[in-house]
Known about the structure:
Blueprint: H1 2-7, E1 17-18, E2 26-27, E3 29-31, E4 34-36, E5 43-47, E6 54-59, H2 63-82, H3 85-101, H4 103-114, H5 118-135, H6 138-141, E7 146-151, E8 154-162, E9 165-169, H7 177-188, E10 192-196, H8 202-214, E11 222-224, H9 229-237, E12 241-247, H10 250-258, E13 266-270, E14 276-279, H11 285-297, E15 309-313, H12 320-328, H13 348-363, E16 367-370, E17 389-392, H14 399-402, E18 409-415, H15 418-427, E19 430-431, E20 434-437, H16 441-450, E21 456-458, E22 474-475, E23 478-480, H17 486-493, E24 494-502
Parallel strand pairs: 9-10, 9-12, 10-11, 12-13, 14-15, 14-20, 15-18, 17-18, 20-21
Antiparallel strand pairs: 1-2, 3-4, 5-6, 7-8, 8-24, 13-23, 16-17, 19-22
Nicotinamide-adenine-dinucleotide (NAD) binds at residues 169-174, 196, 198-199, 228-229, 232, 247-249, 252, 255, 270-273, 304, 404, 406, 432, 473, 477.
Amino acid sequence: ALLRTALKCKTFPPAGRLCYSTSVPTTKLFIDGKFIDSKTSEWIDVHNPATNEVVTKVPKATHEEMTAAVNSSQRAFAAWSDTSILSRQQIFLKYQQLIKDNMKEIAKIITLEQGKTLADAEGDVFRGLQVVEHSCSVTSLMMGETLPSITKDMDTYTYRLPLGVCAGITPFNFPAMIPLWMFPMAMVCGNTYLLKPSERVPGAAMLLVKLLQDAGIPDGTINVIHGEHQAVNFICDHPFIKAISFVGSNQAAQRPRARDSGGARRRDSSQGAKNHGVVMPDANKENTLNQLVGAAFGAAGQRCMALSTAVLVGEAKKWLPQLVERANKLKVTAGDQAGSDIGPLISPKAKARVCELVQSGVEQGATLLLDGRNVQVKGYENGNFVGPTILSGVRPDMKCYTEEIFGPVLLVLEAETLDDAIDMINKNPYGNGTAIFTTNGATARKYTHQVDVGQVGVNVPIPVPLPMFSFTGSRGSFRGDTNFYGKQGIYFYTQVKTVTSQWKEEDSTLTSPAVVMPT
Ligand code: NAD
């Protein structure tokens, strides 16, 4: 019914929205199993980044609404954590099928609100879907350990048990994948959830929650609030919440950290990045150039694993003209247009920031080999487009290098040797991802062992691990207890209870108290 109401709207609206007589639908809250209209007086406009038209208004949930949401999650915990693991698994098995069936609808919402191309938006959903599929292995993943006969008549075994209410705060750049990194693993383990999606792209999360409801999740097990830092503060301060997952910028990540100085709850926080691709002169030139261009400019560079910085070693620096040629061929237009390679940036502010950082590079002495700042996109003159941009001769002291750009900008640095490249990368504060392009196994091995970055690709430009592994960004790109998804995700969302039990035969009953430690 929600979807049907939504389809009457002028602009394509996501699920969970109500159309008023005006053409702008509002995004709802999801509290205690119901999509409800917020009573707030404060709303945030969500724009289509290709046109800057308002597509929905997102409420800044009131304190009462946020309290109702967290209370609902808290109430639902006892029954949900007591639900058999097979029943929870069945719901998520059904859920993964519903996501597959609705992949294109979710992708459309992502393109509308976030701007990325439709094909890339499907990839966004698909990589989240893989986490849901993996979470369906919970019956193996949640198993504890046992050790019989640790001493006479005594056995020890462990259970992995859910924590309680867990919460997630997500960024704009992966509207489906990143929420799906969080609540499926948490909930399949028996936790209940409070989600605060990015206020800039709420639609995909709302449809995903609607599908979870259709899959049979009980009321209250997941609640969704909207807002900016007030909602984040609410989550960080609320005593019911036992674990907080955050993905976003380093600047915003400071808030959950600052508000949890006592370390009272679990935290995992994936943050900003500056990912380097080292190009050795022995690399397969054709593959490397194509991979670099795809990984630097795909999703308009708005990926935390975008390969935004190329380090050309030795003779590889001669490949620059071909790199520019390939980048220049990418088509810049709205994400729902045929053949689009690069969609718009999320906002005019993001565009202005990217352009300023490019300009700072020029002023500090870098060479602008390709300038996409004034790109004109026919029919989308109001969009936040920046075309592929390449700055060469970049040095580590330049502002464009020290700051995360988060746009379709490739910085090119040079290094005489592999050691010099490794040294430069290890001095950069971020550690999300990196790649080396080479045909020499010993070079690849040396790099993977010596580079201090959490996710390394060998001839793989964006080495995001599949969900049976974990997302292991490191150093300035990660703060927290354990990483997202995979075994580490299970560890994050469960606590271990260890039971030591002794069952003696009647005839070996103790005859006196044991007052010393057993040895
Ligand atoms: P953001 O930090 O602006 O927002 C992330 C979340 O934090 C949102 O839900 C937002 O409402 C909230 N928030 C924003 N400002 C806040 C503040 N002052 N106090 C408290 N909460 C605040 O990030 P974004 O622009 O949406 O996303 C892009 C950033 O996320 C980039 O830095 C990117 O590298 C990073 N990111 C990292 C990963 C990773 O896995 N390492 C993945 C995706 C995105």
